[in-house]
Amino acid sequence: MGVEITPPQTLGEHIVDFVVDHRGWFVTFFLVPLQILGDIVLYLLSQYDRYTRKQSTHQERVARIQQQIKNAPQGAKLCTARPGWKTMSLKTPKYKTDPAWYGIDLGNLDHILHVDEARGVVTVEPMCSMGQITKELLPRGWTLAVIPELDDLTVGGLISGFGIETSSHKYGLFQYCCSAYDIILPSGELLHCTQTENPDLFAAIPWSHGTLGFLVSAEIKIIRAKEYVRIEYIPCHNTATGIKSFADASNDDSIDFVESLQYSPSTSVVMRGYLTNDAPANKINKINAWYNPWFYKHVESFLSKSKGLEGAKYEEYIPLRDYYHRHTRSIFWELEEIIPFGNETWYRYLFGWMGSPKVSTLKVTTWGKLKVLYEHNHVAQDMLVPMDQLDASLKIFDEEFAIYPLWLCPMRILAPPLSSTPSNLTNHFRPVTSPKGGLIHPTPTSQLFVDIGAYGTPKSKRFDWKASVKRVEAFVIEKEGYQALYADTWMSNEEFRKMFDHEGYDAVRRKYAVEGRLSDIYTKVNRGARRL
């Protein structure tokens, strides 16, 4: 019987293994400095273009996209030409490398077009990031009602995909704070969509993943900003107390922000945030300062402080922009797996000033053994379940994944009837959530949902990279919940169509002759359509 001989590794393979085994130092001394240099170069190029070239108008940028569609080969399927590594998903789409697909270059659709303070709206192009928008609006005294975490998230991605934040218990999902869209159909026609103008298309665009056309602008409602967020930290040392405290806060519209971090099956810290312009100097915490601990580690400290203290509560004031991007430095808690010593005091003071790597930067350096690890032993999932199913949901997340912390964020799927709108809903802002004809079922079992975010390496003994996700998906379908589609989607097409209501979506695709030019959602997001 012959003995299989493993060929010796090449020098290149040795180098890749060395980088993977010492990734924290590689990221610190090579990747982050390279990222800083790239950002400087891009900034200088943008300034050069700004002062030496005639800037195109929004109309000219739209016309170029229409011309590209007109010039596309007959019968070719259309997609954006944006490289897959630039998306926030850990996976990249396979179809973008298929010659049967024709990429449409959206160019630099990253402009803030107009801030209309009288109407309380901002009009932006789809590649505008959350960082851009907060930098523009906050000095004016305005902000978006829902600003999802991470500076690099774009308006187009949040509308076509999924967007939530800790104000979503009041205002719904990010995409349902939008009052108008401009979209180019596969025919090249430009349509304006609102609740009253092309309302069927307006309803179908959220969650549609670019399968109805090319979004070129969005009008988003804005609200008045304040300087600080007063945070109340409520440590909870048993499951029932944590769930009740979180649910009670989520049903209170006088609270501006609600969030909970679940640190074990029984322990959590619930956070209630209130916008304010007044803050005692000794209670202000600039949590995003490079020398400060990562936010989730800071929050965890309240659990140890409160042991044996029933009903303990802690308070501090956080600058508003710091609050919005409180999980950016640590990429929630994913960075700990990449730089295990990243939260150590010595590291923060020596290297914290350089900042953290971006998700897109990390994606292009996922090689060798690390690629296999992320493929088979890493989870990045958000599941949206009715609030009254939170206890059962936490149990199955623990059984299948045992990843901690878990991120808990409440949101409205449907706005309550006008007659029951709480009188303390600030700014008279009323979200338009799940308009008729959208992908969310028109009669959900609950109006208040919770997003459970699991990010990291599972510790559950029964974890299987396919079977565990499928079991959680089946649970979410049974409870009439939803899955955020940036992550692995193991559902069959039939299961997917059971989770999401396709009636209005299918009708829109037929009406606007989308079939044959743009794929449907499932074709783009199912597990087989993506790769690391």
Overall radius of gyration? 23 Å
Query: How many alpha or pi helices?
Result: 19
The name of the CATH topology of the largest domain is: Vanillyl-alcohol Oxidase, Chain A, domain 3
Q: In CATH's first tier, which class of the largest domain applies? A: Alpha Beta
Which strand order spans the largest sheet, edge to edge or round the barrel?
13-10-12-11-15-16-14-17
Description:
- With 532 residues, this protein is of the alpha+beta class.
- It folds into three domains: 13-52; 104-225 and 493-531, Uridine Diphospho-n-acetylenolpyruvylglucosamine Reductase, domain 3; 228-483, 3-Layer(aba) Sandwich (Vanillyl-alcohol Oxidase, Chain A, domain 3).
- Helices cover 33% and strands 19% of the residues.
- An eight-stranded antiparallel β-sheet has the order 13-10-12-11-15-16-14-17, with helices on both faces.
- Strand 7 (178-184) and strand 8 form a beta hairpin.
- The longest helix has 30 residues, at 23-52.
- It is globular, with a radius of gyration of 23 Å.
- Mean pLDDT is 87; it is low at 418-429.
